[in-house]
Amino acid sequence: MNTTYTADKPIITWLDEVGSTSTYLAQVLTDNTPSGTVIAARCQNAGRGQRGNTWEAEPGKNLSFSMLIKPNGIPARCQFRISQAVTLAIVSVLRPMLPGSKISIKWPNDIYADNKKICGILIENTLIGAEIAHCIAGIGINVNQAVFLSDAPNPVSIIQLTKQETALEPLLEKLASQILLYLTHDAETLHNQYMNSLWRKNNSRYRDVSTGREFEAEITDIGPMGHMTLTDTNGRQLTYAFKEVAAILPPINND
């Protein structure tokens, strides 16, 4: 099935302060709000992550923004295609900026620099019938924040890796444009690139959340709804939804 998007370029609005850019965008959008609309905040004091987690962002130092996406023709059963497009677009921007780090996607949609988290994404879909009417992609990227005070286990920022400040507005324009570009890619291309960009794809250690069992496995597939299929060392295939399995992080070297 072909998929089209109505936006050629992003329309960006900067706010000085807001609780959550995603909540704000959801409150102001109408049927006429164009796809590619972006709300960014210099200070976001109630940023939301997956399953209600909060996102730490020092005011004026990082990118906190949400984008409205109006796909035409993506059924709800294939909704993970949007996550793939968004994550791959961000990876495509960060890789040339951070040539000394391995930039990859930690399933389902965190961006890692080596073994540390540099970007978090929360995508919320609104359905009409069996198709996606629109979605709001909330994105937080650690850019110029040098010190993190929360109990997050492994944050990292661009400035920590490059020792240089990055201008936020040009970076946001590039990221938003890349997201719109990647949304035009076909499902097979997105799937293949996503699989090739996964963090610790081969022979990592996992914990089954319901049983507590730890095991080694490799990622062998990601389904259209985002379910991850692992193949363990005995050749057994195990399929998990988000939060049903946890990757066990390697020890973090803070030197």
TrEMBL record:
* Name this polypeptide is given: Biotin--[acetyl-CoA-carboxylase] ligase
Which key words tag this protein in UniProt? Ligase
EC assignment: 6.3.4.15
Task: Tell me the domain of life.
Answer: Bacteria
